[in-house]
Task: inverse folding
């Protein structure tokens, strides 16, 4: 009798790269993929419990691990990471759902629509249709990388980034969407704006979104 | 809080710093903290403080401070020609200020960032577990900003250990600030460099451009071409050398962005961070590929140096 077929996904092959002498990057894959990101978040959570780990930050498809070089070596920690990553990840809890009101009047909306050969209304409909996942919080305080963006809206970043993007700008680039939490330079296409505050300096953690959360945009009139 | 120092002139850019807020990086908040952790720690230990106490980080030109009460201080890191009442005072040494004494600085002689520790630790706002100043959020340190004329700087507590002036860290135990060889481990994406790129990275001279601050330094020098698809963003660390599309490398420092997707071609070892922290625009540097063994030796010698002050 053949062995029963396993229905579980194969554990990803982990690649360990040192980042200097006090950190390493554990790469689980190179695709924008919800399952990989779920594994990365679970791995980061497990690693934070180790005494030789100072901090573990999940990226899209990997974990950046800051470790105490007096307690471990990249080789020893890398081997432990490979063992942890081979385990079936705990059932991912559905992240909190945030509903974000958007005035779709961004300065790039018309150009985005033209380049995609869509009407602005179609761009708005496509952008506000999915429930996005927060893949990663980082870059600047409170910024969250959201995805996947519908394929129909995929555009490379602007050739010339803006030197100043206003806080609350709702933007797209590649297969991602995001909201600028603070006034900052930026190269994404601005299609709308929201009054929701993403960076909350007097709270801990000081941001609205956390990795693994879900985000739904909805259009509101000006 | 006891006010110990009044700011007569703030210097070019003086902020309160400590060892940063490493736990905030998961919220996208830069870790912050002293750029030169060795000098910060040494200054604290010279006045009997804990290494975690806050110090003043003074950039390029030092402040002019008036002692409102007697206090024990130490200045470490960049040599900005410190003087008390016009008389030169030694660096890396515990010195007493009496009420009415004036601490000022002259010309920059070595490095870019000096650290002033005061016995008892500098009193500052704490944000997310650290007294480091974060200008973007306007939190931590002195009301989230750099020092201004008229500010008053206090100590967090009475000095717990007996305050002894004259403790000193000899020159041979300090980082080699004038030797701009930065030791680095090849990064995860070094193979994305064009064939000659790795030789250039670890052979050519680079220069710190004018775009250099606590977030990082853009480096002038040979353009490093990279190939391959765009990377998915991942967590970054201070010391990372990343190469954006244009090929101009960026060395990330204490207030670096917490995540990004540019190829990381090298990462400085922790033992080279103090030297990197003291670089100023126009300084030449070169990267030297090294091993984790050599990195451990560098860490050990820095720790041994600081242990002489405990």
Result:
């Amino acid at each position: 009798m053949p062995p029963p077929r396993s229905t579980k996904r194969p554990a990803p092959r982990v690649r360990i790269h040192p980042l200097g002498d006090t950190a390493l990057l554990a790469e689980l894959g190179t695709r924008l993929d919800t399952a990989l990101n779920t594994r990365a978040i679970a791995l980061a959570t497990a690693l934070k419990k180790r005494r030789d780990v100072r901090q573990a930050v999940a990226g899209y498809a990997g974990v950046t691990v800051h470790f105490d070089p007096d307690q471990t070596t990249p080789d020893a920690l890398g081997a432990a990471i490979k063992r942890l990553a081979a385990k079936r990840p705990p059932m991912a809890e559905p992240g909190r759902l945030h509903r974000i009101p958007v005035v779709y009047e961004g300065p790039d909306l018309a150009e985005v629509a033209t380049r995609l050969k869509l009407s602005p209304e179609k761009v708005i409909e496509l952008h506000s249709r999915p429930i996005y996942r927060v893949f990663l919080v980082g870059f600047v305080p409170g910024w969250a990388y959201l995805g996947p963006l519908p394929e129909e809206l995929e555009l490379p970043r602007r050739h010339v980034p803006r030197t100043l993007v206003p806080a609350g700008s709702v933007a797209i680039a590649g297969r991602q969407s995001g909201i600028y939490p603070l006034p900052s330079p930026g190269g994404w296409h601005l299609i709308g704006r929201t009054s929701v505050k993403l960076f909350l300096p007097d709270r801990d953690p000081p941001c609205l979104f956390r990795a693994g959360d879900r985000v739904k945009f909805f259009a509101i009139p000006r | 809080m006891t006010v110990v120092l009044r700011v007569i002139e703030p210097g070019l850019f003086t902020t309160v710093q400590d060892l940063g807020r490493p736990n905030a990086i998961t919220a996208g908040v830069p870790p912050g903290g002293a750029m030169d952790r060795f000098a910060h720690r040494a200054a604290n230990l010279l006045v009997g403080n804990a290494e975690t106490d806050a110090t003043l980080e003074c950039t390029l030109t030092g402040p002019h401070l008036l002692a409102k009460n007697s206090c024990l201080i130490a200045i470490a890191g960049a040599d900005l020609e410190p003087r008390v009442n016009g008389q030169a005072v030694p660096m890396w040494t515990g010195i007493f200020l009496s009420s009415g004494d004036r601490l000022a600085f002259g010309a920059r002689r070595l490095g870019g960032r000096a650290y002033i520790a005061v016995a008892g630790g500098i009193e500052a706002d704490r944000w997310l577990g650290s007294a480091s100043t974060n200008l973007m959020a306007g939190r931590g340190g002195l009301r989230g900003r750099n020092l201004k004329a008229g500010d008053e700087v206090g100590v967090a507590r009475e000095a717990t250990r007996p305050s002894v002036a004259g403790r000193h860290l000899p020159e041979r135990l300090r980082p080699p600030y004038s030797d701009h060889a930065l030791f680095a481990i090849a990064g995860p994406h070094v193979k994305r460099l064009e064939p000659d790129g790795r030789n250039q990275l670890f052979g050519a001279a680079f220069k710190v451009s004018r775009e250099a601050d606590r977030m990082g330094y853009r480096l002038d020098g040979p353009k490093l071409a990279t190939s391959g698809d765009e990377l998915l963003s991942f967590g970054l660390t201070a010391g990372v050398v990343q190469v954006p599309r244009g090929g101009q490398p960026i060395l990330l420092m204490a207030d670096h962005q917490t995540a990004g997707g540019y190829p990381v071609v090298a990462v400085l070892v922790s033992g080279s961070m103090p030297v990197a922290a003291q670089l100023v625009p126009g300084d030449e540097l070169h990267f030297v590929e090294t091993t984790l063994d050599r990195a451990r030796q560098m860490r050990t010698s820095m720790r041994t140096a600081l242990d002489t002050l405990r």
